[in-house]
Amino acid sequence: MNLSEIKRVLVVGAGTMGHSIAQVYAQSGIEVDLVDLKQEILDSAIKKIKLNLNLLAEYERVPRDEIPAIINRINPLTNLETAAKRANLIVEAVSENREIKRKVYSQLDEFCSEDTILASNTSELNIFNVANIKNPERLIIQHWFRPPHIIPLVEIVAGRKTSPEIIDLSFNLLKKLGKTPIILKKFTNAFIVNKIQQAINSAVFGLLVRGIATPEQIDLAVKTSFSLRLPIVGVVQNLDFVGLDVLSDVLKNMGLELSLIKNNVEQGNFGVKTSKGIYDYSGRSEEEILRKKDEKYLKILDFLEKINAFEPV
Ligand SMILES: NC(=O)c1ccc[n+]([C@@H]2O[C@H](COP(=O)([O-])OP(=O)(O)OC[C@H]3O[C@@H](n4cnc5c(N)ncnc54)[C@H](O)[C@@H]3O)[C@@H](O)[C@H]2O)c1
User: Fold this and answer.
1) Relative to the CA of 144, which ligand 1 atom is closest?
2) Which among 109, 154, 151 is positioned nearest to 12, based on CA atoms?
3) Which of these, 30, 166, 174, 301, has the minimum number of CB atoms within 10 Å of its CB?
4) Which of 132, 162, 183 is the endpoint of a domain?
5) Are 62 and 53 in contact (CB under 8 A)?
């Protein structure tokens, strides 16, 4: 199957994620069936989609005059069979419950054509063990972030049997939707972002349980420190700014070793100060790189202060 053949998408589950994923597909001109168990859930989903689109129009992310056509492309229904039969791609966004998902996949397997692509939005389940379907090479994880109509990232995770064509197609499709897809090299529980988020949560729970700081202090600390850096240098490039030589000593003191750091340090690549580290700065001087970074930090700081971001929402 190629991109142009994806003309009709079925999103199963119209909750927090499903309604917004359906909206993104409709925004890109694709016909969408949105299925849930009850009409009232679908009514609420359509209401939310309308509010989302109006807000996007306010921020000039969607032309206001296109909103009625986008909504018309979304067909809410409770009949899974009807929708599954006519879909080229099915996005599964039902509750994160192994038994519910298992049942949905067995229904989909019965109803849809054997080459319909099945994309799960699961956050942590190994869907490749949960879904018992014919042609498992068409099953893939496309993991979106809340709210899908705003957050760019979609993690693509393949199972051992997922075909390379489905991985490529997923990547190109999500690009076409205006998203930022990342293909993980292999399956791991919680993928990239939730794994990092889990580590943060575990540190936060520890601080709270031990009474080290109040919730408000923890949030203020995070918002006025690494939150400013994250959008510019992420979490890995930041290490180049720390200095890999420094980091290597820290790791040694902790009895740890990371070959990525060790190998770089052995080759004299300490990060920004040597113009090469985990990233290659192509011979640019430390001053030049620091200035480029700091200008971006200042722009972020100006903006965050302007929108009172350091106050609680
Ligand atoms: N909430 C998040 O931030 C988030 C982020 C990324 C991924 N996810 C994942 O997305 C999936 C959906 O999460 P959510 O937060 O939208 O959950 P949700 O509870 O808001 O929505 C799930 C929807 O699935 C429907 N549903 C249940 N069984 C169904 C069936 N048999 N047929 C049709 N619809 C059915 C429910 O009625 C509900 O409306 C989960 O796998 C979750 O882990 C959630």
Assistant:
1) 6
2) 109
3) 301
4) 183
5) yes
Question: Phi, psi at residue 31, to the nearest 5°?
Answer: -75, 135
The pTM (predicted TM-score) of the whole model is 0.94
In this prediction, residues 194-212 reach a mean pLDDT of 97
In this prediction, residue 1 carries a pLDDT of 83
Q: Residue 146: CB within 6 Å of ligand 1?
A: yes
Residue with tokens 């994620």: 17
Mutation test residue for ligand 1: of 10, 11, 12, 17, the one with most atoms within 8 Å of CB: 17
pLDDT of the residue at 34: 98
Strand partners, 140: 119, 158
For the residues 180-200, what does the mean pLDDT come to?
A: 96
Total domains in the chain come to 2
Tokens standing for 43?
Answer: 């009514």
The residue from 135, 164, 183 where one domain ends is 183
Structure tokens at 217: 């202090």
Ligand 1 contact, 35 CB (< 6 A): yes
**Domain carrying residue 172:** 3-183
Q: 294: domain CATH number?
A: 1.10.1040
What pLDDT score was predicted for residue 289? 98
Whether residue 176 is found in the same domain as residue 238: no
Residue 252 near residue 266 (C-beta atoms within 8 A) = no
**Closest to 62 (Cα-Cα) out of 21, 23, 7:** 23
Can you tell me the distance from the alpha carbon of 174 to that of 8, in angstroms, rounded to the nearest whole number?
Answer: 15
Mark whether 108 and 237 lie in a shared domain: no
Give the integer Cα–Cα distance in Å for 84 and 35. 10
> For residue 283, what pLDDT is reported?
94
For residue 95, the ligand 1 atom closest to its alpha carbon is 22
Which residues sit opposite 12 in a β-bridge?
35, 92
Contact 241, 271 (CB under 8 A): yes
User: What pLDDT score was predicted for residue 88?
Assistant: 96
